[in-house]
Amino acid sequence: MAKEFKRPDGRKPDELRPIKAKVGVIPNADGSAMYQSGNTIAIAAVYGPKKMHPQHLQDPEKGTLRCNYNMLSFSVSERIRPGPNRRSTEISKITEWALEPVLMIEKYPNQVIDVHIHIIQADAGTRCAGINAAALALAHAGIPMKGLVSSVSVGKLDKTIVVDLNKEEEDWEEGAGATDIPISMTDDGKLTHIQLDGKITSKEMKEAIEMAKKAIKQIYEIQKKALKESLKEE
Amino acid sequence: MGEEINTTSNLTGERIKKYLEEGKRFDGRKLDEFREIKIETGISNKAEGSARVKIGNTEVIVGVKLDIGEPYADSPDEGNLSVTAELLPLSSSRFESGPPKFSAIEIARVVDRGIRESKFIDLQKLHIKEGEKVWTVSIDIYSINDDGNLLDAAAMGAIAALKTAKIPKYDEEKEKVVYGEWTNKNIPLNKDIPITITAHKIDGKFIVDPTLEEEDISEARLTVGSSNGEIFSIQKGNSMPLTVEEFNKILDLIEKVERDVFKKLEKQIK
Asked: Is residue B110 a contact partner of residue B233, using CB atoms and an 8 Å limit?
């Protein structure tokens, strides 16, 4: 089945789009990174840890990770009104959940780490690109971490499981249509984020997770390389 | 634009002034010298036009989107122009999320006026059906890294994004824009490019292209939008007054710098 299926951009089912990752793209920030997958580009900046204001939001037991995901108005075909919306609010929270497990945030009681994520150009998989950029920016900021988090979307186009869907694939309408499953994992293979839109059997789901695992390994290596390169420059 | 939180120490401020006294800048520039300007266009492929502008460590990105809208009653045969600016918290620890504050609004409005008053966009050519349908040009500006002079960078970004923008296809039957498909037509633009330059008065001296620290200790600010010696927009900022003599001096300074900046801009917009 998988052999007959042709992806619109000619990729193999388990083939990622070309990836670019760069750390230190925003001089003012304590940590920053750019992550590009195909035509999707995300940038992230970390400010903190710093004192949490207002005071009633302070947590005396551990620090707070505060993520803010946003798409620039011109990053999509039809201009989106600048500012937060329901979708970006949800993705911001999901991103916090995806990243927090690797952060040694208990070291920063009463403090907050702000992560600002902006999508400059969107071609599906923007939350995954955002999470990958954010993980890099946090590491670049020198926040103590138990590991990295890497994120990719797997999906099903009609009956074929594929990795890293682009917009054209996300909008797939032939056969059973498209199922989109963004997944984030720690580098030791624990799930920190999974969502699903569409329809899939549990057997296919398992196959999809295995494919995501492999893709995430590749992404992890690229993230690691980007971090090492930033050390060389300094 | 440092009125939100000013973190430049008095000591740094005094040092900057001492250098100016000797005719030098803190970072080794001359008083009328810009930092290196780098412009990259086509940085976001869904936008009709887009640009990244770096002036030293300051960076903004600007995108232009076109949509069909209704004309305003007082200009039934003209397209609409809308400019927004967001000072992203990503770009500086001084910026916070939330509704746009004064400096963001000011940037958008000053850029808007520089383009509108110079008639850089021929809005009359952007009507589709008089009184009913016109193109709306949205220019959205985002700060990426603030190291002073976001305003001039924003204005340059808007020009670069407009210059490289293509008009999208329009389905006349469905009366809808076909996004993702472009005609080979550019937005109708005037050949004279309006340049926006901001000068500051610090301790009786006048400088252009301030760094963040210089902005922090600025006494008065004057932003001028002009092209070929003709002035289209002026905005005075900060609380200290200027004498007419000082004002004239700043105009001369800006006129001199404008030509230089224009050349740099023209070379880099493709």
From this structure: yes
**Residue with structure tokens 């071609």?**
A123
d(CA B24, CA B16): 9
> pLDDT tens digits for A173-197?
888 889 999 999 999 999 999 999 8
- C-alpha angle A42-A47-A48 in degrees, rounded to nearest 5: 140
pTM as predicted: 0.92
Paired tokens of A183: 């997944």
Task: Identify the pLDDT of residue B5.
Answer: 62
Residues of B within 8 A of A116 (CB-CB) are 88-90
Is B44 near chain A, with CB under 8 Å?
yes
Task: Please give the backbone phi and psi of residue A174, each rounded to the nearest 5 degrees, phi first.
Answer: -70, 150
Q: Is the CB of residue A74 less than 8 Å from the CB of residue B66? A: no
Q: Rounded to 5 degrees, what are φ and ψ at A84?
A: -70, 155
B47/A41 touch (CB, cutoff 8 Å), yes or no: no
Block residue for tokens 């670049």: A140
> ipTM of the assembly?
0.88
B46 and A72 within 8 Å at the Cβ level: the answer is no
Enter the tokens of residue B128.
């589709």
Query: Which range among A1-10, B200-209, B234-243 has the greatest average pLDDT?
Result: B200-209
Model confidence at A157: pLDDT above 50: yes
Burial class (CB in 10 A: 0-12, 13-18, 19+), B213: buried
Residue A1 has pLDDT above 50, yes or no: no
Reply yes or no on whether the pLDDT at A83 is more than 80: yes
B219 in reach of chain A (CB within 8 A): no
- A6 min Cα distance to partner chain B (Å): 23
Residue B131, class by beta-carbon neighbours within 10 Å (0-12 exposed, 13-18 middle, 19+ buried)?
exposed
Cα separation of A115 and B206, whole Å? 38
3-state secondary structure of A215: helix
Largest Cα separation within chain A, whole Å, is 59
Q: Above 70 in pLDDT, residue A87?
A: yes
* Ramachandran bin of B66, using left for φ above 0, alpha for ψ from -120 to 50, beta for the remaining angles: beta
d(CA A76, nearest CA chain B) in Å: 5
pLDDT at A234: 61
Residue of A nearest to B48 (CA): A74
pLDDT confidence band for A2 (50 / 70 / 90): very low
